[in-house]
């Protein structure tokens, strides 16, 4: 047995193996796979826009106009009018001077942090920051410091100590998420902005799971709190509530120019298809006027909160903590057998001993579907409790 087989065997014994499953997403938050049609509570399509008729039509028309690919990197000949128009829309919606599109959220994080940071700089991350943000920080060569999740006192202590030892011309960047993807909780943004200003740091906030869901126009937590002008780097993805694919950063023109010249994940890869950018621009327009969808999502969140004993559900993500990997997998399997897809999330995505069901709500669900899945979840929790 070679070392790869041994490693896979160890993962299997710890209930940590993963596999790819083919499925087709259908109407009304359903998913077809392995011969069954299931209700999908795993997708990040929070507003149900991935199958919106306007976005489908936009994709068809843009493909007919521009073709299926960009043909080159953005600095060679791959930047189309669709890319430029989308960046203008994103900048306007995020109340920023400019914006820059990337192929996806992962490449956005890598490009931003590696182009703006060097070995003399300091990146201070929330402990639960997404893997793409951690990888971007590591690849930048900057000194990394980590503070306990949402612990502003520890963040302030790190800011103070790092500011005192920072060399001339170096900078500190605080890296957080607005909504944390596995816990669904919000960052204490107002307090972090205050500390950022007090200690002269820059702030990078990933709104991947806040976009579309929070704020009067769906632009995320920064908009909801009136703090968009205070976040120097507003990052997000276009494959969740926006319904399409890609990533973006909204920022000043100066920072955008730096990324255009130094972001390797932008420079050394073929540009995203123009149709992808056209869909994103149309999606931002839809999200701004989707108050009815956000209200529907809010009603689901309130129902889940009440049904599960008054727990806080501040976003579309509701984690059901199980603890043990095998128990979480079994619960997910039972739910699937009953017709619902609710994934089991395990280490290393979440800390050891905190395996969970990650229940994700969408405006595409019906109240009946939400009530049914919550009833089944409650039965699973009783089953686990009884052993």
Provide structural commentary.
Helix 5 runs parallel beside helix 6. Strand 7, helix 8 and strand 8 form a beta-alpha-beta unit. The protein is α/β, with parallel strands linked by helices and 387 residues long. 44% of the residues lie in helices and 17% in strands. It is globular and about 60 Å long. The chain has a seven-stranded mixed beta sheet with strand order 4-10-9-8-7-5-6, sandwiched between helices. It folds into two domains: 122 residues, Aspartate Aminotransferase, domain 1, CATH 3.90.1150; 236 residues, 3-Layer(aba) Sandwich (Aspartate Aminotransferase, domain 2).
State which percent range the strand residues make up: 15-25%
The quaternary organization reads as single chain
The total domain count is 2
CATH domain class of the largest domain:
Alpha Beta
Shape: globular
Radius of gyration: 21 Å
Global structural class: alpha/beta
Widest sheet: strand ordering: 4-10-9-8-7-5-6
What profile does the largest beta sheet have? 7 strands, mixed
Strand count? 14
Mean pLDDT: 96
Determine the CATH topology of the largest domain: Aspartate Aminotransferase, domain 2
Superfamily (CATH H level) name of the largest domain = Type I PLP-dependent aspartate aminotransferase-like (Major domain)
- The CATH architecture of the largest domain can be named as 3-Layer(aba) Sandwich
Number of helices: 15
Distance N terminus to C terminus? 36 Å
Helix content: 40-55%
Unreliable runs: none
Helix/strand order = HEEEHHHEHEHEHEHEHEEHHHHEHEEEH
